[in-house]
Structures are given as structure tokens and as C-alpha cells.
Amino acid sequence: MEIPRQAEMVELVPNGKHLEGLLPVGVSTTNTQRAEDPQHCAEGKGFLQKSSSKEPHFTDFEGKTSFGMSVFNLSNAIMGSGILGLAYAMANTGIILFLFLLTAVALLSSYSIHLLLKSSGIVGIRAYEQLGYRAFGTPGKLAAALAITLQNIGAMSSYLYIIKSELPLVIQTFLNLEKPTSVWYMDGNYLVILVSVTIILPLALMRQLGYLGYSSGFSLSCMVFFLIAVIYKKFQVPCPLAHNLANATGNLSHMVVLEKAQLQDEPEAAAFCSPSYFTLNSQTAYTIPIMAFAFVCHPEVLPIYTELKDPSKKKMQHISNLSIAVMYVMYFLAALFGYLTFYDGVESELLHTYSKVDPFDVLILCVRVAVLIAVTLTVPIVLFPVRRAIQQMLFQNQEFSWLRHVIIATGLLTCINLLVIFAPNILGIFGIIGATSAPCLIFIFPAIFYFRIMPTEKEPARSIPKILALCFAAVGFLLMTMSLSFIIIDWVSGTSQHGGHH
Ligand SMILES: NC(=O)C[C@H](N)C(=O)O
Domain residues for 332? Predict the structure, then answer.
């Protein structure tokens, strides 16, 4: 297949900017045609060498977002509903195995960002779809755009689904009502629409991701609060809960919280309330998909890089490593303390498990509000790459237009709302999508795109970086096949206990 030439690169519309400012000063369009030629390829065209340093300088877009804001945005992109499933994952792996797997996924995630950044240095423009185009032509571009769209629509639906199911309960608790009433403000469907129109849409209409730094910072502080509450609750909630002893995953509806003292002597209770360090069971298979989902932020990396002030590969890798490291610590602590509170009684959605303890507990109520705020503010960040992907697929050569910008955002939000309102069961489908698109975006695409894009003159096919990249793709492929087969086996045997949010 003929590898597309750089000509397409200059037609790209990064963040709505067209042509002007896209080309390096003094570099003509014809000059940009041979980026893969090593002598033309000082990390690709679209760069100017800074006179004082050797670091290449992107000129496709003049970014203004600071280092800190970019860390907030990327951390916010990583953090989402994934955190709620990690305690469940730990219950099915044990603490040590969980820590090992979490570390592995975090490191691999960072390596994959390294591959993306290196490839985008060669292509000269920071867009995932363009890497696909340079590597495999239009099919590569479409595959990247499709994976981004599916993954991010899946993630956004899961966030809106949390709003739909949690917000009515929060309002009910605020109003001190024993039972839900049929008034509109306790109807999840109306509430999702209301939140979408009043909070998400205005933020999603921002022209640049950089503007969302403040809301991302706020969203992260909500998640920090969530984490503190999870840690605090570990020392407050008695173990075991009555129903946990009866049936760790059984019917939780009429649960009574028993005092710790009542059950302390019983050997069963002691066994239930001791952590396991290494476990393997039928649900262990879900661990990697849950973790992979939790660390997906790859569609957002290049848009954030595009808007970074004084961008360089090293700086962006620092931003990514820092965000991944912070999320890694938060994920581990949330999973650990969530697990140590309920042990094997933890559900696939951590918040549910807390509300079964005491739905009227004020702290739990605040935690739910915090998680609701956090996921609401994550939606605009996750929507951004989808809009970019749609623009890349349908309107690639066109000038930025506010009308199109608004219509795509509104259309996307409307579709996701309809999905969450009318077809919540379809969220199970996202288990499949998550098991396919997440490994593609994290492992397979960055590796194979890198393999094709990096010129053989620079790195021969048998050089260590390229062999490593291929192994990385193979790992992704293996994981994808494994998760898909487990999900299908689960479906066929009808034993699925997996929550709908991944
Ligand atoms: N950004 C995403 O696709 C998912 C995100 N990592 C989450 O945990 O929800």
C-alpha cells in the first residue's frame, strides 16, 4: 500500500485552524511533501528548529496551555468511571496481583504515549487519525477515528448513565424522602438532559481544550475528596456486613448493618474480613479490561499536546507520566480501601456498595455528589477527540466553522442522551467495545503506526525499538482476544455479573 505523503498533513485542521499558521515559516507546501526522507525529516516537517535548543518546535498550532493545566486536562481524561470498578477488580485478583497488573498497565500506557509522541514527531502534526493515515492510508485513518469515536462514546455514555442513576437518589436523600416520587426532578431521564444542556454542552462548545483546565482541576479535586472518603469509610463501616456473610454477591436489598462486635467472634466473619493477596476466579478475566479502560486517555493526548505552550516531546511525556503516576496512586488507594471495606462483598460499581450500607449517610451523599461532578466535567474533555475524529473523517479540508462545531457537539450529546435514556441495556455492548477499542487505542495502533511511520533509514525493521513496538502490538492483540472470548463465554453461559459501566 502506498504510504500517503505529507501533502495531507498540511490540509489538516488542528483545532479548527486551517492552513494559516500550519506551515513552518518559510517552508513551502512542496517542501512538506517528503517528510519521510531522512534528510528532510528533522522529526518531520512542520517543525522549526529553535535557534537556541535542539528541541524541535511544532508550528502546526500555536499552543497557549500551560504545563499544569495540561496535567489537569490529561488526568481528567484518564479519570472517569473506571475508578469505580477497580475495587471489584481487586476482589477478584487479590492485592498483590492487582498491584502488579495495575503497575504493568500504567507503564504500558506511558510507553504507548511515548510511541504516539514519537510518531507524531515524524508526521509533524499531532492528530491520532493522521498517524493512521500516514501508516496505512485512509483505512488507517478511519480505523483510528472509529476506535476513538466508539471508545469515547462508550465512556461518555457510562458517565451519563451514572448521572441518570445516581442523581435522583442524591436528590431524594437531600429532600429526605423515604421513597422516590414521580415528580420530574427525580426522574433520571430529565436530569440527564438538564445536566447535559446546562453544564456539559456549554463546556463542550469551547473551541479549545485548554479552556477546560479549570473545570478539570475542579473535577480532580472532587475525585480526591472521593478518595479521602473511601479511605475514611474503611475505618467506619463494620466488617462484615450481615448480607456479605450470607452471600457475598447476593441480593442486597434488605440488608441490615450489624455491629462489628456481634460477629467478631465468628470464624466465618474473620475469614471474610481478611484480605486476600492472590486470587484467581472466573471474574479475574475482567481485570485487564477494567484497568485498560481506566487508563485510556490516548485520544486526548495529541489534542492536549497540540495546545501545549512551548511544546516538545519531552515536555508532553512528562505531562503524561505525571498524570499517569498521580492516577496510578489514586487508583490503587481507591481500589485498596474500597476492597478493605467490603472485601468480597464489593460490587462492580463501588458507589452502589456504599449506598447499600446507609443510603442516607451524609458523607456518602457528598461522595456521590463529588463523583457526579467529576464525571460530568469529564464529558467535555472526552467529547473533544470525537468531534475532531468526525471532522477528520467528514470535513477534513474545511475551514473552522462555529456552526459545524456547535452542530457536531450538540448532535453527539443528543445521541448519547438518547442512548442512555432509551437503550440503557445497550451499555453491555460497551463491554465488547471497551474490550476492542481500548486495547486498539492503547496497544495495537500506537505500535503498528509507529512501526510503519518511523523511517527504516532511521530505525531498521529489526532495530530494538521496532521489535519492542511489535511485541507491544502482539500483547494488545492477545489481551483483546482474551477479553473478548471471556466476555462471550460469560454471555453464553449467562453468568455475567459484570457492571454496565465499563
Ligand atoms: N477516557 C476514557 O476513555 C475512560 C477513562 N479512562 C475512565 O476511566 O473512565
Answer: 67-236+274-493
| Dist. CA 412 → ligand 1 center (Å) | 17
pLDDT for position 427: 56
Rounded-to-integer distance, Cα 158 and Cα 420, Å: 8
Ligand 1 atom closest to the Cα of residue 158 is 9
Cα separations (Å) of 423 from 138, 154, 161, 196, 200? 32, 13, 11, 17, 21
CATH of the domain at 225: 1.20.1740.10
Residue 494 confidence class, pLDDT cut points 50, 70, 90: low
Q: How many helices (H) and strands (E) does the chain have?
A: 20, 2
Q: Of the ranges 156-165, 355-364, 415-424, which one carries the lowest mean pLDDT score?
A: 355-364
296 Cβ closer than 6 Å to some ligand 1 atom: yes
Q: From the CB of residue 408, how many other CB atoms can be counted at a distance below 10 Å?
A: 19
CA distance 113 to 446: 8
Q: Please check whether residue 74 lies inside any domain of the structure.
A: yes
pLDDT at 186 over 80: yes
The pick from 148, 226, 293 for probing ligand 1's pocket by mutation, whose C-beta has the most ligand atoms within 8 angstroms, reads: 293
Q: Please state the rounded mean pLDDT for residues 354-378.
A: 87
Number of domains in the chain: 1
Distance from the CA of 77 to the center of ligand 1, in angstroms?
6
Position 463 in a domain: yes
Cα of 148 to ligand 1 centre, how many Å? 12
Instruction: Give a yes or no: residue 267 inside a domain.
Output: no
The ipTM value here is: 0.96
Residue with cell 480505523: 143
Reported as a single tens digit per residue, the pLDDT across 214-271 is 999 999 999 999 999 999 988 888 776 655 544 444 444 334 444 444 444 566 667 7
Ligand 1 atom nearest to 159, measured from its CA: 9
User: Does 255 reside within a domain?
Assistant: no
What is the torsional sign of CA 272, 276, 279, 282? positive
Residue 430 or residue 176, greater confidence: 176
